[in-house]
Design a protein that fits this description.
Strand order of the largest sheet: 1-4
Shape: globular
Order of helices and strands: HHHHHEHEEHHHHEHHH
Radius of gyration: 20 Å
Number of helices: 13
Largest sheet: 2 strands, antiparallel
Helix content: over 70%
């Protein structure tokens, strides 16, 4: 295969897909309006936060299925503290601050259990997914509506006509980029994913770094949940339910390897936009929900195939 085609598949494929989707979208009435494109990014922000979390976990050759439940659990606990358990102590602004820390605590607990006790992370996070989803259903079986404006501010309000959620999403990715590309932690994460034993011999605190990645993944999912609650101006028991499939699709489509050590933030960022545009185009064209499931299933299959191609190219490059 020519080197230019190989380079395209490894580094720039997601942007080619995005360009093709945008070109198609220009033929759909209403797609190119500023309001519609703004809404696409607004809807993409919560998913993008979860994708960032899974991206970090996959880089260390682990997996976290519980992100979709953390997405709902962290805002639910913060809202319960604010409205039921300690309304006099927990102001809505404090509840906003507590939300990502609740996600961080959940992620650190899952990571510590899986890494320290050497238990398969797939099984651990599957269990925490079920526990947290059950807790959400128990705490808010009918949902919570009419939330204080301070709590919904980040997901609901706009700056200069642009939803604040988009700024939060970009800020989160900006901070992640600095750590992954300019900080020692990023190099350690990639090193663990490529060869955990070699990373340990090189002085990397493998267990600590892995637990750190799980913690940040939980924090990112909680921020996504906060933005979604603000956008919907409510929290319901099925918030984020089933989203983990699209989170995997976005992460893998963005070029992140399931075998660890391979992936770029720019790739997963582009993949989130691709998924958001696909959903938007299906809304604009009136495609039925059952067909949408088939479309997203096809996207996941394509993502898995492209990821396998990228893994093969990367292994060939490392041997040459």
């Amino acid at each position: 295969m020519p080197s230019t085609v190989r380079n395209l598949l490894e580094r720039h494929l997601i942007w080619v897909l995005l360009s093709v989707l945008v070109a198609f979208g220009l033929t759909v009435p209403g797609f190119s309006s500023v309001q519609n494109l703004t809404n696409v990014l607004w809807a993409a922000a919560p998913l993008g936060c979860m994708v960032l979390g899974l991206f970090l976990v996959l880089l260390i050759k682990e997996v976290d299925l519980s992100l979709e439940s953390t997405f709902a659990f962290a805002p639910t606990v913060a809202i319960m503290l604010m409205t039921v358990w300690a309304p006099g102590l927990v102001h809505p602004v404090l509840a906003v601050i507590l939300t990502p820390f609740i996600g961080l605590a959940v992620g650190l607990a899952s990571g510590a259990f899986a890494v320290t006790l050497r238990v398969n992370a797939f099984l651990v996070t599957l269990a925490t997914l079920l526990v947290m989803r059950g807790a959400v259903i128990f705490l808010i079986p009918e949902g919570v509506y009419y939330l204080p404006s301070e709590y919904t501010y980040l997901g609901e309000q706009r700056w200069f006509g642009i939803p604040v959620a988009i700024f939060v999403w970009l800020l989160l990715y900006g901070v992640a980029y600095i750590f992954m590309e300019r900080h020692r932690i990023g190099k350690e994460v990639y090193a663990i994913g490529n060869n955990e034993e070699a990373a340990f011999l090189a002085g990397v605190m493998v267990h600590r770094t892995k637990i750190f990645c799980f913690g940040i993944a939980g924090l990112a999912a909680a921020v996504g949940g906060l933005l979604e609650v603000g956008r919907l101006q409510s929290v319901v028991a099925d918030l984020g339910e089933g989203d983990i499939l699209m989170v995997f699709a976005g992460t893998i489509l963005g070029g992140t390897s399931l075998n660890g050590g391979i992936g770029r933030l720019s790739g997963v960022f582009g993949a989130v936009i691709v998924i958001a545009i696909i959903e938007n185009l299906m809304n604009l064209t009136g495609i039925e929900p059952s067909i949408r499931q088939m479309v997203f299933g096809s996207v996941l299959l394509i993502a898995i195939y492209l990821a396998s191609l990228q893994d093969r190219f990367a292994s060939k490059a490392s041997r040459s």
